[in-house]
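Progress against Task 2.4 (sequence-to-structure conversion) is shown through the following example record, which the project officer requested during the mid-term review.
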Amino acid sequence: MTQSPQRFDATKRNAAERADSAKELLAFFINQHTRVLEYRLQKLVFYAEATYYSEHGERLTDVQWNAYMYGMFSEDIRVALDEMESDGAETKRTIYNGNRTITYLDPAQTVDLPDDVETFLTGVHEETETIQTDELASWTKDHPLFASTRYEDYVDFSDME
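Structure tokens generated for the chain above:
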């Protein structure tokens, strides 16, 4: 575990830096499952981000979120997952809701997160492990940030203040 927490940094503007900021969170959630779809990972990371922001007034990552038809979505998360796959994360190509997607298999990767963030994410996992993915998607659509964001615009977390 590192001592300095990973926090939102508005200066990280390019996609690679934003994607990098999410890899540890993604590895944490992938490690909690035998297999997990990108769709669920998208919803889990947003759930964690929104919950953490409401409790601490800070972001966990630098990723940009969009309000889309199936709830919150981040292209930066997709980029991070693609990079993780290229770096050797075990995956299986599958079809979900008629769309090609990737199932991420438990990589047993070492996760290097600050203790407080790992404790928080463990709580998120415990809260969400019995919730169906479609229910998480509905949660993201019911979230006030979804309502305050025009379709395909980026979410502004300061709208929660």
